Amino acid sequence: MHDIKWIRDHVEAFDRSLARRNVLESDRRSIIDQLLSLDARRRAVIGRLEQAQARRNAASKEIGEAKKGRDEARAQALMAEVAGLKTTIQEAEAEEREVVETLDGALAELPNMPLDEVPDGKDEHDNVEHHRFGARRNYAFTPKQHFELGEALRLMDFETAAKLSGARFVVLKGALARLERALTQFMLDLHVTEHGYTEVAPPLMVRDHVMYGTGQLPKFRDDQFVVTNDSELREMVGKAAATSDPGGIALTMKDRSRWLIPTAEVPLTNLAREQILDEAVLPLRFTAGTPCFRAEAGAAGKDTRGMIRQHQFTKVELVSITTAEQSRDEHERMLACAEEVLRRLDLHYRVVTLCAGDMGFASQKTFDIEVWLPGQGAFREISSCSVCGEFQARRMDARYRSREGRAIHYVHTLNGSGVAVGRALIAVMETYQEADGSITVPDALQPYLRGMTRIEKAA
């Protein structure tokens, strides 16, 4: 969420920010005009409201003085004025709520502003490589893709998954199911014991305002999976109707849904919502390994084979809550924590800085880690580490009190994959494949598999 006062005072800078986000000039003008018009209307109605409230307070005092002076005619006139002011105030308060809701709705649709050092560009072709780790392995055979390996091992079953749940799901069996679990445990152990994150086991379903807080709603509603308890909804609506409370019915309908989390970033970041934290406790660092659910509404025809783009997948998430002064260093630290996972697994990867046109909605700056997949012969994203500034904090009302105790500021939030477990599984399978189709288990994972060193075809 943007600060409308900042936009009002920095119109040209805000326009440049939207331009860097690939918003057309005509659309930018329309957006800015709408925001400034709504803001002017909001301030005008607040002015009228404050004026009416001040006059009501003054008139109330004058009523007492008139009664004390036994001027009943004046007292009656003032009481009539106060009654009229009450109506004026109620109407102004309703108008203020309406214009604030409209303004907030308009602001909620706009992406975060890229930091100055973020490279300009329109899409992934304009991203800037930062550095690489390791090198591509040489194979005496043509490397296969993960789904070819998994199906040949009889440990990866897409056909049965489609019967159970539809497209973009998978059933992992035996050693591959264990390998996925080992990867999750390995990452969590690393981030908790060596990187200082606090492990959290969050809910997998959250309310509307939680999804709104991190920016998934309202703009990306179609990308999410929503769950509605119809019987509970009917009961709640019935109670509201029985009390003749239309507002209650509207509120019930608005908050009727639970959303399957698209990433643990959502519940982890919202742990700070509606709080004023002490600066001394910052930064807060959280990690979680959870299933994640995405509708992939815009992914028709993309990565239709294999596990690259699934409706359900496992990911280990990293979230930090910091001060403004800490957030830049924390961003670099988070990237290093995610990289360490791939370094321990000895996987070849590169880090790129996303250009302004390719960044996520809530991000100010993003580093992507792209792992090399020999079977595909390409780098594919396995982690994104983003700093969001105050953008999410304003939506969540997450703040902190300075050490001196006098000033209250919005926190800065950061999130990153530490890393995507399904894609790490793919990378391990393709990188460590052998000519006979078996897969060597990386040294870092062997303790989690009771010393297993090789995955071979199931009997």
Structural summary, described in words:
- This protein is α+β, with helices and mostly antiparallel strands.
- It folds into two domains: 4-108, Serine-tRNA synthetase, tRNA binding domain (Helix Hairpins), CATH 1.10.287.40; 124-205 and 264-455, BirA Bifunctional Protein, domain 2.
- Helices cover 44% and strands 20% of the residues.
- It contains 14 helices and 18 strands.
- The protein has helices spanning 4-9, 11-20, 25-68, 72-108, 146-152, 158-165, 174-193, 208-214, 230-242, 246-254, 265-269, 324-344, 391-396, 421-431, and strands spanning 128-133, 156-157, 171-172, 198-199, 205-206, 225-228, 257-260, 275-278, 284-293, 312-322, 349-353, 365-373, 378-387, 398-401, 408-410, 412-420, 439-440, 454-455.
- Strands 1-11-12-13-16-10-9-4 form an eight-stranded mixed β-sheet. A three-stranded antiparallel β-sheet has the order 5-7-6. A three-stranded mixed β-sheet has the order 8-14-15.
- A hairpin with a 4-residue loop joins strand 12 (365-373) and strand 13.
- The chain starts with a helix and ends with a strand.
- Mean pLDDT is 93; it is low at 246-253.
